[in-house]
Write a structure and sequence with these properties.
heterodimer, A: 467 residues, alpha/beta, five-stranded parallel beta sheet, 32% helix, B: 204 residues, seven-stranded mixed beta sheet, globular
Chain lengths: 467, 204
């Protein structure tokens, strides 16, 4: 029977299936970060060993400062302890950690692919909901909670019930200035923030195949914002080219052996998905969110919607509350919305292509509002500096920082103040996400860069050509 | 883990859809240990002003709901971040059961690890129940896991579905890690074969 990419990986990692529907899965890669401390505490309290140190990789990202690499600069002891606990755990349990002083340190979902730790056909988990990112390479990757982290540390397994499958096909061809970020925001707006609940999404179609690996990582990253447990793209030549030569990717004979396996992974012709959705990629415009759920997204050519036109009472109330929080008036054109801050970074959009796209818009111009760029890893930072991108940002008056999660979630103190409006390349526009009372608009790196220059949202397609 | 068998308690209605885990517990509290007690920060930014004073308009601050242990929510409750602290905050505040048309997948999984029962009912049923408790201030709702039933004011009664293994674990308060460690032989045998077939994952 023809099977899907998801089913093949699920099957390959199934240790046993109980009659009551519980499936015990092997975890091929477990990624940990400074927020995984609770899982390690459980392990310690129970006096259990780490079952597979060779399958565990970590880096501090959530709590790390972006202005310095000095751990001692983290003012609050509780937060500093989160970062130091990862180093202690890595030492005590003997797993690989890319620490704060390591040039390879970065956001865990950026460095997994970058190091070649992420590979097609692997079941990967991490105590972070954006683990779906790794699905871009044809892995089945999903986020888990602290108890499950402890379980994986102790057993390298997880109990799960099998999710349903969904295929999202994006047809046509993306227009100029339209990126993977716009595609995923359009998908979420279409299927809703709960549209993928209980599902693993496979993204397919000509638009997806044509995306770079960086673009696919951005796309899969926000699967959770559509409610999906995981998102994935079938591995292809672009995937293999991306992986070849990376530190943890197989080499020599092992490469050929791995490649032969990877080529068996794409969904078979005729494989059936529980849900099928098709979106016309040619009609997607640069997007931005206007509310406090990622589903509240629209094309930059539009305007703030009017709750009065919403027929469902509950939705109307939610929309009114969201606009009140966001300080927006119905009917306001998106391009008339002024911003106070711009954040370019996060596991969604902090890779070299993202920084190049932002730099291309910024080059030769000055930012009119406070803005910062936070690369996804130390290696991306170094590459960007080698390409002179940092100088373009600095010349524009934009801050250039060290790698970390930073202002996406603000756990390190990089915050947006109450009432401030931020154009952000991150993944969540939830109330309070970037700081209490902060107003977040999710956009692509090019759109964020354009907003930094103009001081308000602009259609990057109009902006690119003119100075 | 504490068992869950049955609860009969005041139910709090929360009609907001897409209540994300950042709302349930803002990120700035996550470095605290569980023993610090997460209930004090549940819905912090909705519940308290910046100076720490209560927002009287938020339903959890109303005296009638102080003892609420059941939450009747809206679709996609607990979406967003994987933080299990969201479950800790609800549990530590006294909640034992959340009823909603749908949940964020990770939140749903996390709930079972802490003895918090997430009950999925059709949207129309949840709305009916929520409206019934809104009408009768601080009404009780009963949830019985064994019979998989919810009963509420105005003769409300509904049956819910739950995966048998999840139900059993809650009823008996079973611990996942202990169950799995008992399967060590099977796990080791699987790993040996897996590692043999994918040798590139274990560099020499």
């Amino acid at each position: 029977m023809p099977s899907t990419l998801f089913e093949k990986i699920w099957q390959r990692h199934t240790i046993l299936e109980r009659e009551d529907g519980a499936v015990l899965l092997h975890v091929a890669r477990h990624l940990v970060h400074d927020g995984s401390a609770a899982g390690f505490r459980t392990l310690r309290e129970r006096g259990l060993p780490l079952h597979r140190p060779d399958r565990t990789f970590g880096t501090p990202d959530h709590y790390v400062p972006t202005t310095t690499r000095d751990m001692a600069s983290i003012a609050e002891a509780g937060r500093r302890d989160m970062v130091s606990a990862l180093a202690t755990n890595a030492h005590d349990y003997a797993f690989t950690e890319f620490g704060l002083d390591d040039p390879r340190q970065g956001i865990i979902h950026v460095i997994g692919p970058e190091q070649g730790i992420t590979q097609p056909g692997l079941l990967m988990v991490c105590g972070d909901s954006h683990t779906a990112t790794h699905g871009a390479l044809g892995a089945l990757a999903f986020g888990i909670g602290a108890s499950e982290v402890a379980h994986v540390l102790a057993t390298q397994t997880l109990w799960q019930s099998k999710p349903r499958s969904m295929r999202v096909t994006v047809t046509g061809k993306l227009g100029a200035g339209v990126t993977a970020k716009d595609v995923i925001l359009a998908i979420i707006a279409h299927i809703s923030a709960a549209g993928g609940t209980g599902h693993v999404i496979e993204y397919a179609g000509p638009v997806i195949s044509a995306l770079s690996m960086e673009g696919r990582l951005t796309l899969c990253n926000m699967s959770i914002e559509a409610g999906a447990r995981a998102g994935m793209v079938a591995p292809d030549e672009a995937t293999y080219a991306y992986l070849q030569g990376r530190p943890y990717a197989p080499k020599g004979e092992a490469w050929d052996q791995a490649l032969a396996f990877w080529r068996t992974l794409p969904s078979d012709p005729g494989a059936v998905f529980d849900t099928d959705v098709t979106i016309d990629g040619s009609s997607i415009a640069p997007m931005l969110t206007w509310g406090t759920s990622p589903e509240s997204a629209g094309p930059i050519t539009g305007s703030v919607p009017d709750p009065a036109l919403e027929t469902d009472e509950e939705r109307r109330t939610a929309m009114t509350q969201a606009l009140d929080y966001m300080g927006l008036t119905p009917g306001t054109r998106f391009t008339d919305i002024a911003v106070d801050k711009v954040f370019i970074g996060s596991c969604t959009n902090s890779r070299i292509e993202d920084l190049r796209a932002a730099a291309a818009v910024v080059k030769g111009r000055k930012a009119s509002v406070w803005a910062m760029v936070v690369p996804g890893s130390g290696l991306i930072k170094a590459q960007a500096e080698a390409e002179g991108l940092d100088q373009i940002f600095r010349d524009a008056g934009i801050e250039w920082r060290h790698a970390g999660c930073s202002m996406c979630v603000g756990m390190n103190g990089d915050l947006v103040s109450a009432g401030e409006r931020c154009a952000s390349t991150s993944n969540r526009n939830f109330a309070g996400r970037q700081g209490r009372g902060a107003r977040t608009h999710l956009v692509s790196p090019a759109m964020a860069a354009a907003a930094a220059i103009a001081g308000h949202f602009v259609d990057v397609r109009d902006f690119t050509g003119s100075v | 883990m504490e068992k869950f068998t049955r609860i009969d308690a005041v139910a709090l209605p929360l009609a907001q859809p897409n209540v994300d885990t950042d709302q349930i517990i803002p990120a700035r509290f996550l470095w605290h240990k569980r023993s610090d007690g997460y209930g004090q920060w549940l819905f912090n930014d909705l519940r308290f002003n910046e100076d720490g004073s209560e927002k009287p308009g938020f339903i959890l601050n109303q005296a009638a709901y102080a003892a609420a242990s059941v939450l009747v929510a809206e679709r996609n409750f607990g979406c967003g971040s994987s933080r299990e602290h969201a479950v800790w905050a609800l549990y530590d505040h006294g909640f034992r059961c959340i009823i909603a048309p749908s949940f964020g997948d990770i939140f749903y999984n996390n709930s079972f690890k802490q003895g918090l029962l997430p009950v999925v009912l059709p949207e129309a049923e949840v709305t009916k129940l929520r409206e019934a408790i809104e009408r009768s201030n601080s009404a009780h709702v009963s949830v019985d896991l064994q019979s998989q039933t919810v009963t509420g004011p105005g003769g409300f009664t509904a049956r819910f579905e739950i995966a048998p293994f999840r139900k059993q674990k809650l009823l008996e308060g079973l611990d996942d890690i202990a169950i799995t460690l008992a399967l060590s032989d099977k796990i080791t045998a699987f790993e040996a074969e897996f590692d043999r077939e994918m040798p590139w994952l274990t560099p020499a």
